[in-house]
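Write out this protein's structure.
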Amino acid sequence: MHPHQDGAMWNLRQWNSHSQRLVTGLSMAIPVALLLLFGPFWSWCLVVTLMTGVSLWEYQRMTFPEETPQTWRAFFIATGLIFPAAAALGETVGLHCALVLSLFAGFLCLLFLSPEDPGGIRRLSQFSLGWLYIPYLLSYILLVGQDAAGSTWIFFTLLVMAASDAGAFYTGKHLGRHKLYERVSPKKTVEGSLGGLLASMLVGALFARLFIDTPGFAEVFFFSGFLALVGQMGDLMESLVKRLCGKKDSSELLPGHGGLLDRLDSLFFAFPTTYLFLQWVVDRGLP
């Protein structure tokens, strides 16, 4: 084999997008599955903190003006890392305290470091949206993880989202005819969306039959579809952010997927939804 051909074989970025997507997805899914099955809670905290830091870095690359000083960029990321630590140590109360603390710290820096900067309020608004969108929502993974059956529900949420993504991708590829929301995401189709919802409901129901005792089969079946719908809306919302910022991907970190934000977009609102489902339906035993 020619040396250049051999090198291309192992260069993932030279493969077609489908192969890149599959290999990258498996390389992420396998460690996550092992972590959920065998990893202690502190290892989940480290993973969520790492995801938070990378996602905040991608977010500020997309949305912050180029002239934003590096000190402010570092402050934005460092403050965002408080959220998963607070959720791990203080659960819901800790997470809400981190939200208040981040806003207070932002105003404090604005007050003493740049009180005459006319762009200060705009910058703080961008910071606050980033903190609320990324570390606050991602920290719900740790809140779910502290439930008695936390690892099961985290695995359930990831599996339903993966089924929705795969179902939408392959259904849309082979049967997609009608655009879902072309102004925001031109490649998504109505048929793909419906395929994703159906796949998520079937996979969620099967998982519930095998591994979840309560709530009942019907509740989990319909909740899986609702969770997938929330995930699809989260995907569209991140696509909207990229479109408004003039970006195709949040970064080039993951071959076939773009950036980490592009991979996590459907999860941001999914885990808070699962957490509320556990609080309102499972733990209270509501019908």
